[in-house]
Amino acid sequence: MLRAVLALTGTAAGLAALLSFKSHPATFAAAPPAAPPATSGPTSRPAPTSTTTTHPAAGKSATASKSPAAAGKSQAAVARTVTGAVTNTQYGPMQVQLTLTGQKITKVTVLQRTDDGSESDEIDSSAIPKLTSETLAAQSAQINAVSGASYTSSGYIQSLQSALDKAK
What we know:
Layout: H1 2-20, E1 49-55, E2 60-66, H2 68-73, E3 79-83, E4 87-89, E5 92-101, E6 104-112, H3 118-138, H4 150-167
Antiparallel strand pairs: 1-2, 3-5, 4-5, 5-6
Helix pairs in contact: 3-4
């Protein structure tokens, strides 16, 4: 009888804790507009577009040439780096730096990683490439943690979100 009461009490407490859990709202990074593919060579250049205008005073027509590539260069996005906050985990600090072109994450560099011996090194060497790959694919901090690397994943994601917040 005592076991049944304890099991029922434990179940009720667990259910209450589960129902009171509040998660953080999802934040999504805006995807940048797609840029035309960059190619080189004489056959890949876009043909210039021509516009004909009439000068009102002279009554003559003039043809102006404007290349789409020339127009795009003035609006080219500049690469910039943003460093996230250092996040302290149970096994050491984590800090990431992002390289962004416009609003697109193009590179993730881990500046500090957990440093609690050879086991941390082994975990980080497999987890960080996975986290980086997911970051580049998701273009946000809404990525999955790596199984077996909970602290590394948590620190990485927190520092990543910090860098994204600074980039806005």
